[in-house]
# Entry
Amino acid sequence: MNIFTPSQIQTNITTVRARIKAAAVTANRDPRDIKLVAVSKFHPASAVQAALQTGQVIFGENRIQEAKEKFSDLFPLNPAIQLHIIGPIQKNKIVDAVKIATIIETIDREALFIPLVKAMEKTGKSPKLFIQINTGEEPQKAGVLPKDADAFIVKCCQKFGDLIQGVMGIPPINKDPIAHFQQLAYFAKKYDLPEISMGMSSDFETAIACGSTIVRVGSAIFGDRPIKA
Ligand SMILES: *Cc1c(COP(=O)(O)O)cnc(C)c1O
# Structure
């Protein structure tokens, strides 16, 4: 297991930022059009604090309960923190998700609509929403299937309007991600959605070449996780 010290985390962030910039330049893109989400799941608040010291304010978590516990102490220290929820959403956690998230990246079924609207009314908050697409059609993965994506995106936009800001996906592991990235970019373009959340530690440069506007990087910043997610 490879758990990094605060100074290693800071070095890693600098390295990842430099790699993002280089990949953008190679792809003839403006590096400022690509945001880095530091995925802190399974890592402690102290790791997030180390990242904050480098000016990193966007973080990703995939479990609402963990995110709530970790970030309740961190939000007051740094009001600039933006939290992206990147894991599957359960209806019973939706109020907490809406409370803490700047963006919920994983909207993938109509059954979430009513609980989401209610949670927004209850909390007075309205996070931006991305639609997760299961481009690999993997049964163990969340996300709307590509064949259902058109109808679902249209319904989401009818229901939530401008809150729908992008698409998100996770290509199958150990497969060439390019076709998956291209498919995500296709849906974003078709529906004029500005954000495409794709690319992780092992493939973010490829994702940037395919048009990613948000890369979600965990282990390359914080080290290995105690449990593989
Ligand atoms: C864990 C996770 C990441 C980060 O993965 P790394 O390979 O550690 O960079 C990105 N996106 C999602 C949805 C995740 O669950």
